Amino acid sequence: MKFLDNSIKRFPNEVAIKLGNYVYRLIDPRNGETFYVGKGKGNRVFDHATGLLKMEKDEDNLSIKVGRIKEILNANLNVIYVIHRHDIPDEAIYEVEGALIDAFPGLSNIQGGHGSGAKGPMNVLELMDKYALPEIIEVPNHKLVLININNLENRGDVKEIYEQVRLAWRISKNRADQADYVLAVVRGVVVGAFEAEEWLTATHKHFPLRISPEKEMPERKGFHGKKAPDDIWKLYVGDRGMRIAIDDLKHIQNPVRYWQV
User: For residues 72 and 14, what is the distance between their CA atoms, to the nearest angstrom?
Assistant: First the structure.
């Protein structure tokens, strides 16, 4: 695949019109690694690669993507960019972007691809679990925070689930404090339920065993807590996990979902 010529800084208007909606990748020239996938029209890809694009909602100067672009530009290099698919119908743009995000693990995108949590890459066992496990079909009476954790190695390891779900999220502390339980979700399946005793900023002081002073994320939060009581675990997790069948509980893009808070 040929990359865009970095000597070209803008699309002529007639080209931009014919391109329509497109999905693109940003690539680090220092190692050839794709670090961001986005969608857009017109000259968005150029503005993004040169750092001219306004930051997205919930993004700040400390975000991985912004930092990566600054590092590349400060090294007197240019971000490499490639248009992966163009002339995409409006109704398909999120699916195309989501599929490409799923294909490149470790991206700096703040949010996952559209439908990634529910329809993203899965092995056969995960697909069997997703469509064969019992469903949560009754509207919960509890106040909940549901958090996607998609890199879980062992769904039977409660400690591993807890360690993944408790750090570190862009989350409303006020809303999280109101929740009765935190549910850990993998590909649309609830795999853990916990009581958050205290939500704190993701710093070395608050999580000394998990966060080094150099890796602090003060814009994110984490919690100290414990496994939910057995009756709550049975209600939301069951024996091997329970599928979310209620639309308002399902994740779309943001890894954090609130219920009644």
Answer: 30
Return the residue matching tokens 């649309």: 188
Q: How far is CA 227 from CA 161, 166, 192, 232, in A?
A: 10, 12, 8, 9
Distances (CA, A) of 101 to 12, 24, 75, 121, 159: 28, 10, 26, 10, 28
Helices (H) and strands (E) in the chain, counts: 9, 10
Q: Would the pLDDT of 42 be above 50? A: yes
Q: Measured at the alpha carbon of residue 142, what is the angle toward residues 136 and 144, in degrees to the nearest 5?
A: 80
Class of domain 13-114: alpha beta
- Could you tell me whether strands 181-186 and 189-202 are parallel, antiparallel, or unpaired per DSSP bridges? antiparallel
Which sequence spans correspond to the domains of the chain?
13-114, 124-259
69 secondary structure, DSSP code: H
Enter the pTM of the model.
0.61
231-254 pLDDT per residue, tens: 999 999 999 899 999 988 887 668
Would you say 223 and 206 are in contact if contact means Cβ atoms under 8 Å apart?
A: no
Distance CA 221, CA 207 (A): 10
